[in-house]
UniProtKB/TrEMBL annotation:
Its EC number is 4.3.3.7. The active site is at Y133, K161. This is 4-hydroxy-tetrahydrodipicolinate synthase. HAMAP family: DapA. Catalyzes the condensation of (S)-aspartate-beta-semialdehyde [(S)-ASA] and pyruvate to 4-hydroxy-tetrahydrodipicolinate (HTPA). Belongs to the DapA family. Pyruvate binds at T45, V203. It is found in: Cytoplasm. It comes from Spiribacter onubensis.
């Protein structure tokens, strides 16, 4: 249903942590001009954990309004409360998002049955395409392939952003689920490898700062042009590493500040990028022609 380079877009903020409305418009226009295939508004890279419910819904709504049908917009709707995840998904539907991305419930550590019931409840309650998101390194819980297989029979669960760190895991989901559910890479350093294995694209942090290059790489990979895809991915490799030198989204927000696209704001407990990493990130941006 969806494919290509889908950006896990940051939420721009002023220095005091207030939402930056002008910065949001700049970012949306930047991605439209650069060929990004879809925007994920207020995912975990968008600091969803520190936005209150009203702010969360507002950013999804404004992103859709600014996009005005020119680019696919998805809403980040995951929460560790099933009720809250349902409410946020309802907000995404009302805002006009074309899909919802739902991370596994963090900290709670539900069982596989609990994960199944969580995602199934939201899918049954809100009639819109939904994409699962598995990132055990951040959430403390791992959505296993057999549970994804069960969920793939739910009509409006259409994909999974897989960020477990295992290529074999993604391959197993693709083999188990076939065309019932699409797989998207959630780790930029593995984007090309997963698309070669059958993934339909990526939900990318790197696409925040090199959207045109990421779009072209994904398009080449999906078209089977391995030579072109490898050449483009090589230009992105330094960014894939540099943007995770500290906890995401600290480096990517600093990179966007350096590019003049957003201000310096982020909310505690996130803090600005350590000065020792500034030059490394700056050089990675230059290698990708982002500066």
């Amino acid at each position: 249903m969806f494919q290509g380079s889908m950006v896990a877009m940051v939420t721009p903020m002023h220095e005091d942590g207030a939402l930056d409305e002008a910065g949001l418009e700049r970012l949306v226009e930047f991605h439209i001009a650069s060929g990004t295939d879809a925007i994920v508004a207020v995912g975990t890279t968008g600091e969803s954990a520190t936005l209150d419910h009203e702010e969360h819904c507002h950013v999804m709504r404004r992103t859709v309004e600014i996009a005005a049908g020119r680019i696919t917009v998805m809403g980040g709707c995951g929460a560790n409360s099933t009720w809250e995840a349902r409410q946020l998904t309802e907000c995404a539907l009302e805002a006009g998002c074309e899909a919802a991305l739902l991370v596994t419930p963090y900290y709670n550590k539900p069982t596989q049955e609990g994960l199944y019931q969580h995602f199934r409840h939201v899918a049954d309650a809100v009639p819109m395409p939904q994409i699962l998101y598995n990132v055990p390194g951040r959430t403390g819980v791992d959505l296993l392939p057999e549970t994804v297989d069960r969920l793939a029979d739910t009509a409006n669960i259409v994909g999974i952003k897989e960020a477990s760190g295992s290529l074999e895991r993604a391959e197993e989901i693709i083999e188990r689920c076939g065309d019932r559910i699409d797989v998207y890479c959630g780790e930029d350093a593995r984007n090309l490898a997963l698309m070669n294995a059958g993934a339909k694209g990526c939900v990318s942090v790197t696409a925040n700062v090199a959207p045109g290059l990421m779009h072209r790489m994904c398009a080449a990979a999906l078209a089977g042009d391995q030579t072109e895809a490898e050449a483009l991915d090589a230009r992105l490799a330094a960014l894939h590493n540099a943007l995770f030198l500290e906890t995401n989204p600290i480096p990517v927000k600093w990179a966007l500040l350096e590019m003049g696209l957003i201000g310096p704001g982020m909310r505690l407990p996130m803090t600005p990028l350590s000065e020792q990493y500034h030059e490394t990130v700056r050089q990675a941006l230059k290698l990708a022609d982002a500066l």
